[in-house]
Specification:
The protein is an alpha/beta fold and 438 residues long. It has three domains: 3-207; 210-298, Elongation Factor Tu (Ef-tu), domain 3; 309-434, Rossmann fold (3-Layer(aba) Sandwich). It is built from 13 helices and twelve strands. Helix 4 (78-107) packs across helix 6 (121-141). It binds flavin-adenine dinucleotide. Flavin-adenine dinucleotide binds next to strand 4, strand 5 and helix 9.
């Protein structure tokens, strides 16, 4: 089954369970409470119950999706899962916070919901869950500013949050009487436990497999460099995939994602990095022999189709995945898939891998450099100038309908090009985009 079909199936199963559970919860709530005699207070009470059940369901899904992200990477891509999680966490927060607010409004008393009363344990654990949730949310906002170890400990709190919330829901929620609600809680519990086991095994495996050592740091342009890593163990990946890098230093360094720019056939692992902030600066200052911990490979920004022409559209350091793909494809003697690289950078000095790209002499590979800095236009005979646009695509891409368009570059470039390609009639399934957000 192709990745897209598998992703579709996985999505249907996951969303199907969420929708089905919500349906059961709505039925449970509106089944037990008489809908006649509804007044403002009872509506607030019902909303409190509904937001509580939905909040618990979404929270469990959030924890489950985090624990199994490495498994579901093959269907959706880890980067897309992380983006989804960040948005979904905010959505979940609305329900989790609304739950005590509705109850407090309905009972006109706020204290039992904010000050844990340990003589009523299920209610007290509900209030504590709320505080843990707030701590985890704040930590995930400032995640880049805290150490990886601290983040790991805070992550452990999410399990406490889950079990406290489950205890609260089972022992305090009136809907637990229903068998259908019990079954949903059972499925959630089993899924969460499976997720925890999966994550634990993955972490143990990764502890031994993820150690790499700096072999070289090579400056590419004024603000980019390539980190060359070696390891005694083999590391397999597909061209276009990325890894999380972590530094084995006791400082405040979280993990950060970087795309592998070497080809899967090379002995060394390379990452081409643009200096952006604290982590990339720390990477640039690594010394030969220092340890870098690698978690990966992840992502589905890879070539699955061997027939269509490939159009790689890169901006700046967005060339990294394409370098891996181009090396991988052009190394093979029997390569018949045509590749055209449209590579946008500010000036010719900013072109990363210029020499290596110029040295690839294969009929199947063509490249065009597009310079955007108007000061370089005068001496730019051998380049296109301005931004990659409809005119440039029409000029260089001969068979638009039989081409796959891969895009990796700045946000504005991606958004503009998406519109341009839509205008050119490119099927959205033939546009594959990588996002260097973080
Ligand atoms: C799937 C994926 C693959 C990636 N592959 C690559 C790759 O191959 N090469 C690469 O170079 N990058 C890549 N990235 C991006 C890379 O992960 C980030 O650039 C990097 O993690 C930034 O970390 P940092 O600590 O150095 O910068 P940060 O400090 O996190 O800064 C990042 C950005 O935020 C801005 N910023 C920081 N602090 C502030 C502030 N206080 N106010 C306003 N703006 C601020 C910075 O100017 C910068 O633009 C990839 C990202 C993803 C998701």
């Amino acid at each position: 089954m192709r990745t897209r079909n598998k992703a579709g199936l996985a999505l249907v199963v996951l969303c199907g369970f969420l929708v089905f559970s919500l349906f059961i919860f709505v039925r449970a709530i509106f089944g037990f409470d008489s809908l006649q005699n509804l007044n403002f207070t009872s509506i607030l009470y019902l909303l409190g119950k509904l937001t509580g059940l939905a909040g618990f369901l979404f929270l469990s899904f959030l924890i489950f999706s985090g624990d199994t992200a490495r498994f579901f990477d093959r269907f959706f891509g880890m980067d897309k899962i992380i983006k989804f999680q960040r948005k979904f966490a905010l959505f979940t927060m609305i329900f989790v916070l609304a739950h005590p607010i509705f109850f407090a409004l309905s009972s006109k008393s706020i204290l039992p919901y904010v000050i844990p009363d340990f003589s009523v344990m299920p209610l007290a654990l509900g209030a504590i869950s709320l505080y843990i949730f707030i701590i985890v949310m704040i930590a995930s906002k400032i995640y880049k500013r805290i150490s990886y170890n601290l983040w790991q400990y805070i992550h452990l709190l999410t399990y406490l949050l889950f079990f406290f919330s489950l205890y609260h829901a089972v022992n305090w929620g009136s809907d637990y009487r229903l068998i259908s609600v019990k079954i949903i809680y059972g499925i959630i519990l089993i899924s969460l436990l499976a997720g925890i086991i999966y994550r634990t095994f993955y972490k143990i495996k990764q502890k031994y497999a993820g150690k790499f050592y700096v072999q070289e740091i090579k400056n590419e342009t004024e603000n980019t460099f390539t980190l060359v890593l070696k390891s005694e163990k083999a590391f397999s990946f597909k061209a276009g995939q990325f890894c999380f890098l972590r530094l084995n230093k006791g400082k405040f360094y979280a993990r950060h994602p970087f795309t592998i720019s070497s080809s899967p056939k090379e002995a060394r692992l390379r990452f081409t990095v643009k200096l952006e902030g604290r982590f990339t600066k720390a990477l640039s200052e690594l010394k030969k022999g220092e340890e870098v911990i690698i978690d990966g490979p992840f992502g589905i920004f890879t070539i699955e189709d061997e027939q269509k022409n490939l159009v790689f559209i890169a901006g700046g350091v967005g060339i990294a995945p394409f370098m891996s793909m181009i090396k991988d494809k052009t190394i093979a003697d029997n390569q018949s898939q045509n590749i055209i690289l449209l590579y946008g950078s500010k000036t010719k000095e900013d072109i990363i891998y210029r020499e290596r790209l110029d040295n690839i002499k294969k009929d199947c590979f063509k490249k065009v450099y597009i310079l955007s800095d108007s000061r370089s236009f005068l001496k730019a005979d051998e380049y296109e100038t301005g931004h990659i646009n409809e005119e440039i695509i029409r000029k260089y891409v001969k068979n638009i309908n039989n081409s796959l368009f891969y895009i990796c570059g700045p946000e504005s470039m991606k958004n503009n090009l998406k519109g341009t390609l839509n205008k050119l009639g490119v099927n959205k399934h033939n546009i594959i985009i990588e996002d260097f957000f973080w």
